[in-house]
């Protein structure tokens, strides 16, 4: 059973210690520039490999790159909605959900926990590379850079939404959209980098 929307969501400005082990606690934090840089460099490296070592046409490489971007936006939405906001009907699920995402809702201003640690990020990207290589062959070297660039874009948007005041331009829409998710109704507005899938799956606030 899903919990009812929370109207009075905490807006703590501090941070919270999740792990008693100092090393693990430190590794659970990262400055946002680190994973963004890692994913962009990873993407550039894959695209370079594609150009030098595959026979993919330019138009196909560009098309697969944008398909990767689109697929990431869907994965972002689905993970945020169904994994990060999983129903917590057992103690284990409650602990997992809180470590993954609940702590971010309690402390949305904690800038060190707006992205997965670099070691985890690189590991996931590499696992994706090997798995998708088995399925997609050389296409992965154009598709995965788009996917990872989408993730870097998500991290950037998520960071600036929480770290800065909303700008007086079109990007203000993203601030308002994510703000509704955090401070008014956490069962709506799951898209961070784009509200596209909220429109499609009818979770627009």
Explain this structure:
With 205 residues, the chain is mainly alpha-helical. The protein has one domain (30-200). 63% of the residues lie in helices and 0% in strands. 26% of the residues are buried.
What would a concise description of this structure say?
This protein has 205 residues and is mainly alpha-helical.
Question: What is the strand and helix layout of this fold?
Answer:
Blueprint: H1 22-27, H2 33-53, H3 58-83, H4 91-106, H5 118-136, H6 140-163, H7 172-183, H8 196-200
Task: Throw out a few tags for this protein.
205 residues, mainly alpha, globular, disordered N terminus
- Mean pLDDT across the residues is 80
What percent of residues are in strands? under 5%
First and last CA, distance: 21 Å
Number of contiguous helices: 8
């Amino acid at each position: 059973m899903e919990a009812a929307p929370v109207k009075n969501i905490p807006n703590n400005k501090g941070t919270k210690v999740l792990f008693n082990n100092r090393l693990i606690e430190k590794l659970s934090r990262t400055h946002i520039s680190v994973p963004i840089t890692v994913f962009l460099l990873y993407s550039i490296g894959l695209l370079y490999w594609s150009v030098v070592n595959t026979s993919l046409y330019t138009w196909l490489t560009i098309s697969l790159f944008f398909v990767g971007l689109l697929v990431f936006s869907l994965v972002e939405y689905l993970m945020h909605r169904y994994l990060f906001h999983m129903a917590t009907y057992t103690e284990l699920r409650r602990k997992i959900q809180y470590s993954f995402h609940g702590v971010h809702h309690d402390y949305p201003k904690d800038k060190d926990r707006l992205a997965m640690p670099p070691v985890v990020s690189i590991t996931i990207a590499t696992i994706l590379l090997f798995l998708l290589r088995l399925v997609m062959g050389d296409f992965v070297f154009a598709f995965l850079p788009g996917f990872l660039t989408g993730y870097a874009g998500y991290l950037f948007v998520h960071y600036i939404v929480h770290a800065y005041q909303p700008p007086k331009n079109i990007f203000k829409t993203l601030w308002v959209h994510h703000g509704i998710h955090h401070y008014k109704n956490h069962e709506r507005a799951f898209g961070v980098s784009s509200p596209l899938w909220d429109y499609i799956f009818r979770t627009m606030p």
